[in-house]
């Protein structure tokens, strides 16, 4: 494994670390965990996280990729496109062009590019099977970019462990702390570090709830998460509107 001294993370809520909440109200996430582990072996290690929740891939390219490239990092991660894929009016051809543009620009400006094969939502979310043709094309674009740039690829799509609701927050869209912890370990293993645990080990299923409790949980989820999400889509708003990156510059990390 080559030693990295700088790491820049680019993307949306997945990379920002949404739903892995710290006591002070900030979010941590897999990228922070990866940075902390890399810093253990490298004096003066620095890390930036430009990701902002809710961003579409075009916004990621326009707002983050240039900044990340200018930092000339040893390691840069890119994950994006799923917010686009989940929208009914998705122009998948445009999405794939922007994904390819991001990968090409970041690879040119960095020592190593890190990409993701996105988590498969089709076995976990009702109605998600209709997204599979778009997701398959997104995976193909990531695979092509990885081959072109000899990138590190973290294959989360094939990991059945992410089918478990135990790895997801209440909104069912974002990973929880355990989901981010497992993703971080998957990244570190892909980068060649010695594994600390089996990140894709199955999660024991939770005990089944009585039907009345399940119905209450569904109603609470729809009221608290699904309806606001639909409302933002209909009005063109995003959960990241007006939100700045949590770590906009390369700064030291305390291991």
From TrEMBL:
InterPro entries membership: GDSL_Rv0518-like (IPR053140), SGNH_hydro (IPR013830), SGNH_hydro_sf (IPR036514)
SGNH hydrolase-type esterase domain location: 9-182
Coiled-coil stretches: none
Organism: Actinokineospora fastidiosa
Name this protein carries in UniProt: Lipase
Chain segments carrying region Disordered: 233-255
């Amino acid at each position: 494994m080559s030693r990295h001294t700088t790491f820049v993370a680019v993307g949306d809520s997945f990379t920002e670390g949404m739903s892995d909440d710290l006591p002070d109200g900030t979010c941590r996430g897999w990228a922070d965990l990866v940075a902390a582990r890399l810093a253990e072996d490298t004096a003066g290690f620095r890390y930036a996280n430009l990701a902002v929740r809710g961003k579409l891939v075009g916004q990621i390219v326009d707002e983050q990729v240039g900044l990340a490239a200018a930092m000339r990092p040893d390691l840069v991660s890119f994950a994006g496109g799923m917010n686009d894929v989940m929208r009914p009016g998705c122009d998948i051809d445009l999405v794939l062009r922007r994904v390819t543009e991001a990968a090409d620009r970041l690879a040119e400006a960095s020592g190593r590019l890190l990409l993701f094969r996105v988590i498969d939502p089709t076995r976990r979310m009702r109605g998600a099977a209709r997204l599979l043709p778009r997701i398959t094309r997104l995976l193909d674009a990531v695979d092509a970019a990885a081959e072109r740039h000899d990138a590190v690829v973290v294959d989360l799509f094939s990991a059945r462990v992410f089918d478990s609701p135990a790895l997801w927050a209440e909104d069912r869209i974002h990973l929880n702390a355990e989901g981010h912890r497992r993703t971080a370990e998957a990244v570190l293993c892909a980068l060649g570090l010695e594994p600390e645990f089996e990140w894709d080990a199955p999660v024991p299923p939770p005990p089944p709830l009585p039907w009345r409790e399940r119905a209450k949980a569904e109603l609470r989820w729809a009221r608290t998460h699904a309806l606001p999400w639909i409302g933002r889509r209909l009005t063109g708003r995003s959960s990241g509107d007006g939100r700045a990156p949590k770590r906009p510059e390369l700064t030291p990390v305390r291991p």
